[in-house]
Amino acid sequence: MLASMESRIEALATRMESRDQEVRQELAIYKAAVSAWVMATQKASRVEVPKPHGFSGKRDAKELDNFLWHMERYFEAIALTDEATKVRTATLYLTDTTTLWWRRRFADMEKSICTIETWEDFKREIKRQFYPEDVAYLARKNMRCLKHTGSIRNYV
Asked: What residue stretches are annotated with the Retrotransposon gag domain (predicted)?
């Protein structure tokens, strides 16, 4: 009986040693992965990312589109993926009229009148407020007002 207990204890000790080696190997793999991630993060953080320009609320489609585009490039450069953080970050670049607009929207959100939780929600709301309604009409009107003056050589 004592011999069978000793053999079971030896078998258990062998299994524990085997499992210990497996855990140590997994730990080494995890350490290597974390180390690689830290190195990549340190390299990425050394890149100077220019901050986007603010948006003042000028009702100009090009200005608003450029603001949103630059914000999206900024989010990519700093590896920002959280939707709520994108909204909070973008609001830091609102100036003049857009700051007043955001303060009203923020108060509405606190009262549960509206929700702006994602970047898409924010883009939709800011476009609804500041995007000119007649952009296509104005573009066609400006095209109709163009006049050909001078020779074709001047244009080519």
From this structure: 90-156
Helix (H), strand (E) at residue 22: helix 2-45
Between 154 and 116, the more confident residue is 116
Q: Which two tokens stand for residue 142?
A: 């400006």
Distance of CA 41 to the CA centre of its chain: 16
pTM confidence score: 0.58
Phi, psi of 55 (to 5 degrees): -120, 125
Distance, CA of 66 to CA of 57 (rounded, Å): 12
Please check whether residue 59 is in contact with residue 101, taking contact to mean a CB–CB distance below 8 angstroms. no
The string of pLDDT tens digits covering residues 70-91 is 999 999 999 989 999 999 999 9
